[in-house]
Design goal:
The chain is α+β, with helices and mostly antiparallel strands. 17% of the residues lie in helices and 34% in strands. The protein has 2 domains: 2-166, no CATH class; 177-291, Beta Barrel (Cyclophilin), CATH 2.40.100.10.
Amino acid sequence: MADARLAVSFAGPLVTFQDAGRRGHLRHGVAASGPMDRLAFDAAHSALGNPPGGTAIEVSLGGLILSCTQGSVTISVTGGDFATDHGGAKGRSWQVLTLKQGDKLTLRAGAAGSWAYVAFAGHLKAPMWLGHSATHAGSGLGGGALGAGQVLHIDDAAVREGREGEVERPARGDGPVRVVIGPQEHCFEACATQTFTTQPYSVSDAYDRMGMRLKGPELPLKGALSIPSEPILRGSVQVSGDGVPTVLLADHQTTGGYPKIATVIAPDLDRLAQRRAGQTLRFETIPAAQAVAIARNTAHQRRVYLERISIARGTLQQRLMRENLNHGAAFD
């Protein structure tokens, strides 16, 4: 193994270093941060055979251009349906490829999705804060945002030819976003819950790593606008005084005093985070017990999927040797 160096030629806004997240600090007012699409992040590492949770690059719709200036390294690209250009070869995300000295990789927004992930076969060095590289975009704490002129250092960079090629995409589904109603549904007028779960909403332009403000029917509050501040979870649907709901995401604040009409269940948060401004969505309410059962089943399916894509397919020569290419031979 050797080290590799990549120069950042261009990085759009909100292109950041992220690891699995800075858990255990909410009581100190520190958000966990971490990837917006946690499954795609985990898949990027699994496809390379990496240990889970290491540092990768989260790429926004602004895109990213990298040039390999030293060494060689195999990388994976997962997440939304982004467009890739690897030395003139056009492709899409959900692939593993190798960057060699002199190669350039361009990653741009494609047909769908808001976030992509680039992981490396090696150790991507990034600044640490409280033991993690996960970046809180608002403060810049953690690994930080990438910028043009920056040089990325990958220690123990490896070329893993046996992993190159397409990566199996996970089944996501495209149904309603499932929520558990509460905990402050009593703070809203009687019609609010029905409106929230029967009417369409769309993603507004006010969307970043902290939260996703929605457009749609107002959810009228009953009585006082605020409640005593209390802990907030990722997925909380908080409603401000104008009756507009906001889904809180990776960089959410740790406490808040606006009432929350519902909480998005964890298995649906990744696909919600991949929505773009202007896209529509609907919410569906389910009982808490069903949410728990779905979470357990999803965790099992996720583990099976990540284990499956972590298995190297072998080099092209090894794959050809495994195939029976002579089974239909014809003779003159």
